[in-house]
Amino acid sequence: MGGQEQAISLEPEKQKLLNEHSEKHFTAGEIVRDIIIGVSDGLTVPFALAAGLSGANATSSIVLTAGIAEVAAGAISMGLGGYLAAKSEADHYKRELKREQDEIIAVPDTEAAEVAEILAQYGIEAHEYGPVVNALRKNPQAWLDFMMKFELGLEKPDPRRALHSAMTIAIAYILGGVVPLIPYMFIPNAAEAVVISVVVTLFALLIFGYAKGYFTGNRPFRSAFETTLIGAIASAAAFGLAKAFHA
Amino acid sequence: MGGQEQAISLEPEKQKLLNEHSEKHFTAGEIVRDIIIGVSDGLTVPFALAAGLSGANATSSIVLTAGIAEVAAGAISMGLGGYLAAKSEADHYKRELKREQDEIIAVPDTEAAEVAEILAQYGIEAHEYGPVVNALRKNPQAWLDFMMKFELGLEKPDPRRALHSAMTIAIAYILGGVVPLIPYMFIPNAAEAVVISVVVTLFALLIFGYAKGYFTGNRPFRSAFETTLIGAIASAAAFGLAKAFHA
């Protein structure tokens, strides 16, 4: 890329700017996002549910049964949900592509006016963008790509993305969801198990929140705190509601 | 908009193309997306959890306690999760804006080369995009906006969005989650309540799936079928696992 070649000759701090810049594109990856979605919810909801049931003095066996049912349901709901979301995103792209194609054929002047509009928004004059509009009109495929990206802001989706996304979210949810349940497997008295579960899970949330912040380019310590806080609030609410309701 | 003015003089079918076109921008709204996220999960997970616990011959009281704990935990986790996601999206935009600003000041030639690159991808020649690049260099604010949108594909986020998103998702999750639990409130025997819950919830999933398809511009009947299938699979898995585990 011309930009990068030029950058090589820059002094360190300017080079750093550009490195950080390209780095960001890597860290904000879709797989990382899917893992985060799955683990956040997995660590939080089964944890809170287990704590809530313990508050309603259920046995560890019931807590575990409910927890496993929740993890299975949540993984399937999030996984298949993620799959269909990614798939309908791809369908949406196809439909819009077809529609833009039809418009370029049916109403080329209108589409050309839309290109002009897009560039005019940036204070570019007709005599400055004119050649660009004409160049696109001479090259329908490029014109179509331009409209998809700059008018509709749509990127061509990866066909395998839907399945990968589903599996990533589901597995991440299961991995996250099993952590708070482990203590209930070994301690039959839920009132005792919940204490260990709370300690273990809040610790896991801290570490996960830190990693989440690190990989998404947000402040890791703040992310660790926020993620843990959500888990604590959710489980406290579940605990309180279950107690109040069951009493 | 110039495009629209021109469109008025078009024959019906071409006008229709453009109407559908602008229509899509309305239907794919972020609030609709948040409602869909909340209701889909709300109708699916508490439903499957309740079915699962009934499979482990728990009483309606335990099923209801677990269901309420799950709905509270899920609403908080999704709501606060949505809030932080929207907030970090806004922070991300701010950071990128600052970074682009610094780059435009520190390495203007590199940034100008990036503009050229973006336009060159569409087969536009240097002599065609040259005037556009120069126009942007003369207008740093417009240049910055251009880079944010066309290089990074980032839209300026709405500041109130984070809170609205959180509340929309949480309320939608609660509304969806209460539906499958209602039968357990009136029928003490979970083995009987689960039957009504399954019927009521699958019916609700059909209607919701249809509406989801309608509002997101996907085939409504297919969406109704897919959405209901997810709920059925999730609850069957939860039911089976809970039974297997508890037996």
From TrEMBL, chains A, B:
Keywords annotated in UniProt: Ion transport, Iron, Iron transport, Membrane, Metal-binding, Transmembrane, Transmembrane helix, Transport, Vacuole
Superkingdom classification of source: Eukaryota
Membrane topology recorded in Swiss-Prot or TrEMBL: Multi-pass membrane protein
Subunit text: Homodimer.
Zinc-finger among keywords: no
Entry-linked InterPro entries: Ccc1_fam
Similarity section: Belongs to the CCC1 family.
Range of residues in the leader sequence: none
Known role: Vacuolar Fe(2+) uptake transporter.
Transmembrane segments: 62-86, 166-187, 193-211
Subcellular location: Vacuole membrane
Major subcellular location class: membrane
Swiss-Prot/TrEMBL catalytic activity: Fe(2+)(in) = Fe(2+)(out)
Domains: entry comment: The cytoplasmic metal binding domain (MBD) is located between transmembrane 2 (TM2) and transmembrane 3 (TM3).
UniProt protein name: Vacuolar iron transporter
